[in-house]
Amino acid sequence: MTARINPSILSADFANFQSELARVSDADLIHVDVMDNHFVPNLTFGLPMVARLQEVTPKPLDVHLMIDDPDRWAPGYAETGAFSVTFHAEAARDAVALARRLREIGSRAGIALKPGTAVEPFLELLPEFDQVLVMTVEPGFGGQSFMPETMPKLHALRDSVSRLGLDVWLQVDGGINATTIQIAAEAGADTFVAGSSVFGAQSPSLAISTLRELAGAHRH
Ligand SMILES: O=C(CO)[C@H](O)[C@H](O)COP(=O)(O)O
């Protein structure tokens, strides 16, 4: 299992995304946080920005939709050519139908769970998804502390993925740094979103390679 490190541009300089993307050229994917100020109490950007980001970076975009009504809006993000589009279980009306639509368009389909959302209803649905995002903070803001109480969800997901013989990526997002990445990797995560610990580092490149090594050394 290779550890993927996806820097979150929520922690980048919003006035200089193009040069910020160049600082994380060692990343596996670029994590793009779309927030609508309804599903979460924060507002970032929408479809035109995501489409433009894809034009200025060769890196695959890992789009995380923290928005209401993803059934209506998510397909548009897949149509920009995003590598993966992840929507929230709490917001979707028909998560399976939406995931199928995203895959049909050509994007990987991800489902995200807030810290208080149980994972059990989704375990048997795993074949419908390419990625599960376990939020390790309440979604909305960067720079928060990792919530270790979310780790049992990773264990349950990793067990089900192995039992069903699937290649579903297990992603964590929120408070990931050189300490917490080891905990999440041991619990079964293979894909790590990191905002402040990468963009806040003097050398994002070094931060990425350190995180990748630590995750690899502590993999499940
Ligand atoms: O989805 C997010 C917040 O909702 C961010 O991706 C996440 O919080 C990353 O920031 P940091 O690594 O600083 O916690």
Describe this structure in words.
The structure is a single chain. By secondary structure, this protein is an alpha/beta fold. The chain has one domain (4-217): TIM Barrel (Alpha-Beta Barrel). 37% of the residues lie in helices and 19% in strands. The chain has helices spanning 17-23, 47-56, 70-79, 95-105, 120-123, 151-164, 180-187, 196-199, 204-217, and strands at 4-7, 30-35, 61-66, 84-88, 108-113, 131-135, 169-173, 191-194. An eight-stranded parallel sheet has the order 1-8-7-6-5-4-3-2. Helix 3 links the parallel strand 3 and strand 4. It is globular, with a radius of gyration of 16 Å. It starts with a strand and ends with a helix. It binds ribulose-5-phosphate (5RP). Ribulose-5-phosphate binds next to strand 2, strand 8 and helix 8.
Short descriptors:
8-stranded parallel β-sheet, globular, TIM Barrel, binds ribulose-5-phosphate, 220 residues, alpha/beta, 9 helices
What proportion of the residues form beta strands (DSSP E)?
A: 15-25%
Oligomer: single chain
Order of strands side by side in the largest beta sheet?
1-8-7-6-5-4-3-2
- How many E strands? 8
H/E element order: EHEHEHEHEHEHEHEHH
Shape: globular
CATH superfamily: Aldolase class I
Rg calculated over all Cα atoms: 16 Å
Mean pLDDT: 97
Main sheet overview: 8 strands, parallel
Count of domain modules: 1
Bound molecules: ribulose-5-phosphate
CATH topology: TIM Barrel
What are the low-pLDDT stretches, counting only 5+ consecutive residues below 50? none
| Helix residue percentage | 25-40%
Find the structural class using helix and strand composition.
Answer: alpha/beta
| CATH architecture heading | Alpha-Beta Barrel
DSSP helix count?
9
